[in-house]
Write a structure and sequence with these properties.
The protein is an all-alpha fold. Helices cover 87% and strands 0% of the residues. It has four helices and no strands. The chain is rod-shaped, with a radius of gyration of 33 Å. About 11% of the residues have low confidence. This is ATPase inhibitor, mitochondrial. Keywords: Coiled coil, Mitochondrion, Transit peptide.
Length: 102
């Protein structure tokens, strides 16, 4: 019966790549998990991983800051356009009031 189960599992793993990945990433850590093994290689792997994620986070924050700076510039330009339009309309209203009085 055990042979039959292994044959079925083998057939499933060929048809479903996720099955083979699940078997590879088993919870027992026996699939060559260097970091979990400890020692010098484990420490180096942990340091490399931390360095990678810090670099990625720094790049994401830089990208976010650039995007926000662009948005601020855009809105400041729009605000100036609106202030100019307001000034133009106020000037026109003042001219119309002067014509009305005259």
């Amino acid at each position: 019966m055990a042979l039959t189960r292994s044959v079925v599992a083998l057939k499933l793993s060929r048809n479903l790549p996720i099955m083979s990945r699940l078997a590879y990433y088993s919870k027992d850590g026996g699939a060559g998990a260097i970091r979990e093994a400890g020692g010098t290689f484990g420490k180096k792997e942990a340091a490399d991983e931390e360095r990678y994620f810090r670099k990625m986070q720094t790049e994401q924050l830089k990208s976010l800051k650039e995007h926000l700076d662009e948005e601020i510039t855009f809105h400041q330009q729009r605000m100036k356009e609106h202030q100019d339009a307001i000034a133009t309309h106020q000037k026109r209203i003042a001219e119309l009031e002067q014509k009305k009085k005259a």
